[in-house]
Amino acid sequence: MTVSAPASSAIRYRLARPGEEEGLGRLAAESFGDYPFFSFALKEPFDSYQKYLDYMTRLHRMLIKAYIKKQVCLVGVSDCTVVSVALLHDPRSRDIDVTDYLLAGGLGLVRGVGLRRLLAFFDISEAAQSACTAKHPDAWYVELLAVDTQLKGRGLGGKMIHDCVEPYVRGHDGRSLSLITNTEQNRRFYTSKGFTEFSESTLSFRGQTIGNWSFFKQLEI
């Protein structure tokens, strides 16, 4: 699959490969930077943004490694450089569990934030996804969609949804997508891409709260 990229090159989409986790983890970490879902629970222990970013890279590297092995990790490549990444959960496949995350390097994530905070973050993640799991259990869940920070604002996220994620899901007998977001900007973005908001909630951690919105899209076949 290819699409004309804003930078006058073409984007080719493919499955991520083992060994690409480090670069993809860094791309995702930089893309999500101060994204509230991560920062409100994980940023406080770090005395510099760089240390927090390094931790976020390790976190996303673990997540991506587990998805490459057990679920679906798609990347967009332009001029031999990965510019976007998406993680998809196929509802027909076994869920990624704690063992999978440990094998992907999850135990090392305790260093930096502590076990209690890390376990609380995983609990928050589960709570955030609960509406999608309960109301649309047969939908493919978009765990992550990230774009190279230097290319944000050029439509790469929307193109990846339209030209990669949706065709991939349809090609594997999927009929719908679900996801969550935690910012007003992303609410507008996903609404503009044909998603319907079906649940609103609040996530809390040590006196801090953030909004959590769940979205669903029925795919045209």
Automatic annotation (TrEMBL):
Domain of life: Bacteria
Pfam families: Acetyltransf_10
SUPFAM superfamilies in alphabetical order: Acyl-CoA N-acyltransferases (Nat)
N-acetyltransferase domain mapped to chain residues: 137-203
GO terms assigned for molecular function: acyltransferase activity, transferring groups other than amino-acyl groups
Coiled coil: none
PANTHER family: GNAT FAMILY ACETYLTRANSFERASE, N-ACETYLTRANSFERASE DOMAIN-CONTAINING PROTEIN
Entry protein name: GNAT family N-acetyltransferase
Source organism per UniProt: Bifidobacterium crudilactis
